[in-house]
Amino acid sequence: MSPTRFRRKPLALIVLAFAAAAVGATLILRPHLATDSTAADSTESAPTDGAAATSSAPYTIKAEPSLVATDAPATTSGDQVQVVLTYASFDAASGTVQANGFAAGLIEDGGTCTLTLTQGGDTVTATSTAAADASTTSCGLLETAAGLAAGTWDAVLAYSSDNARGESEAVEVTVP
After folding, report:
1. Residues with Cβ within 8 Å of residue 146, at least 6 apart in sequence
2. Contact call for residues 130 and 109 (beta carbons, < 8 A)
3. What is the mean pLDDT of the chain?
4. How confident is the model over 117-145, as pLDDT tens digits?
5. What are phi and psi of 128, to 5 degrees?
6. If DSSP codes are grouped into helix, strand and coil, which group holds residue 132?
7. pTM of the full predicted structure?
8. Where are the domains of the chain?
9. Does 108 or 35 have the greater pLDDT score?
10. Residues 56, 42: contact at Cβ < 8 Å?
11. ∠ CA(124), CA(126), CA(127), 5° rounding?
12. pLDDT value for 63
C-alpha cells in the first residue's frame, strides 16, 4: 500500500464526520425544514437566511391611558390606623376560625394583632405579632382554639403598637 493512499482514508473520514455534524445540527436547530408541512401553508414568511420570521399583520402603537386604577393612600389620623380584615372563615379540618389582615398606611414590626370573635356574651380571641411588608403591616395568620360553639360569630381584627392602633369593621363568620 502506498503512503498517499493511507493518508486519504483518515482525511475522507474527517470530511464525512464534519458533513454529518452539519446535517445533524441543521436538523436540531431548524427541525421544521425537514418535518413541518405547515410552514409552507403559513401566512408568515419563513426566512431562508437564518433571520427571524416576520409578520405582515399591522401593529398600531396606542397612547398610554391618562387615568389608571389605583387606590388612594391610606390616611392616618394621629395614632389611628386603618385595619383591614382580609379573610375570616371556619376551617373544618382544624375546627378553628382562621383570619388574616393588615394595618394600612403603616410599615412596622412588632405590633400586636388581635382577632376577637363575639357571639352573644361569648368572646374568643387569637393574637399574633405583626410584621412589616412592602406597603403595610401584616398580621399573618390568626387562628382560634378548636371547639367554638356553632352559630354566627362577629370577627373584628385590631392592631396596636406604640405608634398606632385601630380596628377593622366586623365580619360575620359561621361555625357549623
Report:
1. 94, 95, 96
2. yes
3. 81
4. 999 999 999 999 999 999 999 999 999 99
5. -150, 160
6. strand
7. 0.59
8. 1-51, 82-175
9. 108
10. no
11. 145
12. 80
Per-residue pLDDT at 90 exceeds 70: yes
What the block records as the C-alpha cell of 43 is: 401566512
Residue-level pLDDT at 34: 45
Which residue from 165, 164, 104, 103 is spatially nearest to 130, judged by alpha carbons?
103
Euclidean distance between CA atoms 92 and 62, whole angstroms:
50
Determine the Cα–Cα distance for residues 32 and 26; give it in Å rounded to an integer.
Answer: 10
What is the per-residue pLDDT across 22-56, written as a single tens digit (0 to 9) for each? 666 666 666 555 444 444 444 455 556 666 667 77
When the candidates are 2.60.270, 3.40.720, 2.60.40, 2.20.28, the CATH number that belongs to 82-175 is 2.60.40
H runs (alpha helix) in the chain: 3-29, 32-35
> Which residues, including other chains, have CB under 8 Å from residue 3's CB and lie 6 or more apart?
none
pLDDT number for residue 171: 96
How far apart, in whole angstroms, are the C-alpha atoms of residue 162 and residue 58?
60
Neighbours of 133 (CB within 10 A): 12
134, exposed or middle or buried, with CB in 10 Å at 0-12, 13-18, 19+? exposed
Whole-angstrom CA distances from 137 to 79, 104, 105, 158 are 14, 7, 8, 12
